[in-house]
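Section 5.1 Outputs to date
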Amino acid sequence: MTKTLRTATFALTGLAALGSALAADTNPLEAERWKTRPLVVVAPRPDDPLLRRVEETLSRTAPREAFIEREMVFYRVVAGAGSRDGRALTAGQTRALLRALDLRADAPAQLVLVGKDGGAKVRQAAEVDLDEIFRTIDRMPMRQTGR
């Protein structure tokens, strides 16, 4: 391998690594825009009542089907560790998600519904009613037009 080819290969490898590092710190909600409606729950502990209520509700068939039919995805951040539909986020992605929604991992639990346009549509910190969230989505213009 020539010195020029080795240098070019090294430079490309470095750029790829830099791109991966930058992508790891990007807000994962950006990839959802115009595709899905993220439901984000941030809780300080895995046994938080709000988190447990949402997860228990989504484990039942009818709410889960309603969730899927409305093109929703589930983000959870528990004790600072984030995931999307059960797949782990990087620490950088989790920080970017929290920053984008102006939330703190150590604050009391909160639920945020994000619309397809990327804006926060519902924020709840106590009683969570997923049926009401589904009704809110059904009233959204994009849902009404079938997009």
